[in-house]
RNA helicase (Lentinus brumalis), 740 residues
Amino acid sequence: MPSDNPYYTRAPPVPKSLGTKDPLFGFLPRTITGKQVLAAMKKILETRKKLPVFGQMDEFLKMFTNNQIIIMVGETGSGKTTQIPQFVCYSDLPHLNKGQLVACTQPRRVAAMSVAKRVADEMDVSLGKEVGYSMRFEDMTEPGSTFLKYMTDGMLLREVLNDPDLKRYSTIILDEAHERTLATDILMGLLKNLAKRRSNLKIVVMSATLDAQKFQRYFSIAGPNAPLVKVPGRTHPVEVFYTLEPEPDYVEAAIRTVLMIHRAEGPGDILLFLTGEEEIEDACRKIKLDVDDLVKQDPDSVGPLICIPLYSSLSPEQQQHIFDPPPCPRTPDGPSGRKVVISTNIAETSLTIDGIVYVVDPGFSKQTVYNPRIRVESLLVSPISKASAQQRTGRAGRTRPGKCFRLYTEKDFMIELEEQTHPEILRSNLANTVLELAKLGVTDLVHFDYVDAPAPESLMRALELSNYLAAIDDDGALTPLGAIMADFPLDPQMAKMLIVSPEFNCSNEILTIVAMLSAPNVWSRPPNKRKEADQAKALLTVSDGDHLTLMNVFNSYMNNKHDRQWCWNNYLSQRALQQAENVRSQLQRTMERYEIELVTTQDERKLWQNIRKALVCGFFMQVAHKEGEKNNYLTVKDNQGVSFHPSSGLDSSPEWVVFNEFVLTTKPYIRTVTEVRPEWLLEYAPNYFDLSTFPHGETKRALLRVQKERALKVDGGASNGRNSPASDLPAKKRKKTAPS
DNA sequence: AGCATGGAT
C-alpha cells in the first residue's frame, strides 16, 4: 500500500529512549561538546562491531552480490535483524533511485517499530524519514525519502495484492521465517515466483538454524541449494534439567518448582510458561499463598517474591510490570527478593524480559487447530515442539548463564515432542488466503508452490465457501465481487455481508457490527467483580441478538464521546472500542474506494430486520436450528450439536439463528448469535439451501415447510421475483426502500 | 450453563 495513500495515518514520532544504553544518554540540549559527539558515535559503532554478524559483513556482501536469493541463519543475539538490512542498503544504494526501497518484514508490530527505531539511531537519521516502518493503522515512512522500511509481514502481503511485481523494492528481506506465519509462508511462495519475473529483485530469507536446509532446498532456483550465510548467536549457556517421572499435574508441578528455585537457588528472576489467563491468575494466587506460608515458617532464609502475570489481553500498562525490579530484601542483609513472571507463550517470541535466569517449562501451550471436516478452528492445550522448548530455554540465558527446568522426562522430550511447531498454514482456515491467491491469479491452488502444502481438504473447504459466497465462480476464477472482497481486511463472510448491506439499507450499521466483530472482546469481567460486570452488560444488551448488542455498545460509546470513565463504569475495554473505531474508519475508506454507499433505515423495527437479512447474506453457512424444547441446537448441514455461549444475551431461544463463531471449550458453543427467519435462508442463499441435496433430518423438514408456505405466498404475488442479492454485485445507485 | 493464545490485515 503506497504511503501517500490517505488511507493511512502518520503516527506521532516515537519518543527518544532515555535508557542508559542510549548513546545520547545524559546529553543536555545546547551544552554538547565535540568530545561527547565523538564518544556517542564511537559507542554506536562499538556496539555494532561487537555483534557477531558484523564480522561477516564481507562474506555476506559477496554472497549477496553474486546471488538473487540467499538464506541467512542467525541465532538470537547475532544482530541480523538490525545489521543485514543496513548492509543491503549499502549494496543496493536505493536512495540513488528515487522511490526505491529495501523492505524487511517482521511477524510482529512491536518488532517492526522498535527495530526501525534502533536502526534509524545507528544510521544517524530520523525515524520516519530515511528509515521507517509500516504496519496497519500506522505508516511511519516518507515517500521519496524512505529507503529502508521495516514492516509487518501481513502488510507486505496486502501490498502484493495491489502491486504483484513489488516494483518499488530492490530487495525484500523476510525475517523470522522460521516462525512460519501464514503471511510469511504465502510471501515465500509469491517471491520465489516473482524472482523469475524480476531478475533485479533480490531476496534474503532469515531464519533460525533448524529450518535453514528446508529453505535452502525450497529456494534452489539457481542450483541444488540456495546459498547460506551462517552467523553464530551470542547468548549465555543454559543448563537444562528434566524430571525423572512424568508429572501428572503440570500446574501443581510448576508451582512446586518455582518455590524450590526460590528457596534453593541463587538470585535471579524466574519465567514460568503456562497456557492461558485463568491458569496464570490461579498460579499467581497459589504461589503468593505458599510463599507467605514459607516466610512465616522461616523468615530469615526466604526472601520476598512477587508474581507478575503476562498474557495478551492485559493492557500495555499492565504488561509493563514485567519490567518492574524484583522486591528488596526485608532487612538490609536479609535474603534477596525475586520476581516470577508467569506468562503464556507471548514471552516465547514477542517479549523479552531482562534478568531472567530461571525458566520453568511444563511443555504445553494453547494452539489453534483447524479441522476442515467440520470447518472448525479450536484452541487446544497441546505439547510444544522441540524448537519451542529450545526457544523457552534460551530465555534464561539473555543476560548471564541460567537454568531451565523442564517438567517432563528427557525421554519424552526426545521421543514425544515434534521437531517443529506445525506451520500456521497447516493449522488454519484458509478462506482469506484462497481469495488473496485468487486475486493474484493463482487458479490452481492445490499445485501452488508452497513451502508446506496445506491439506487439500482445507483448500477445498475454503474454495467451497468462496464459491457459495459468489467470490469464486465454478471454474475457480475470481468474480468481480470476489476481487472487491479480497481488498477488505476481513473474513470473506464479513466482507460479503458488508458489500451487500447497502441493498438492505443498513450499511452504516453493518459496518459498525463488522468493526466490532474484528476488534478484541470489549467486555471486561474481573474475577472479583463478575456480578457487577454482568449487570452492566445486561443494561447494554439487546435481547434480539448479540450482533445488535455489539452495535448498541459501539453507538453508546460514541454517544458518550469516547469517555474513559463511562467505559470503566460499564466494564468495557476502551482499548478494544478504540480499535473497533479504527477498523471502522479503515473499512469505510475501502468502501468509498468502491463507491459502496453508507446508508441507513429510519424505521427502527425495519432497520433491525434489514440488519439480520444482511447477516444471512454473509453467514448463511453458520446457521443453527433448535431441536426439541431445551437450549439444544444443531448446526445446519453438519448437524453438530451446539449450545449458546454463556456470554450470549439472546434469551428467547428462537428456532433459527446465525452465529459468528463456533468455539470448542468445555463444550461446543456458538458465540455471538442472532435470530433469523428461515425464509431468508431460502431467498438469499438458494444455492446453499438447495433442499434437493440437503441431508435428511428435522432441519430439512422444517425448511421444506417454509418452502411450501413461500410457494403459496408467491402465488399470491407477495414476492417481487428479483434476483437474490447474495449472488449479485451491489447496485451502485439504489432506491431507498428496503427489500420486502 | 458457566466464558480458554497470539500474531496479522
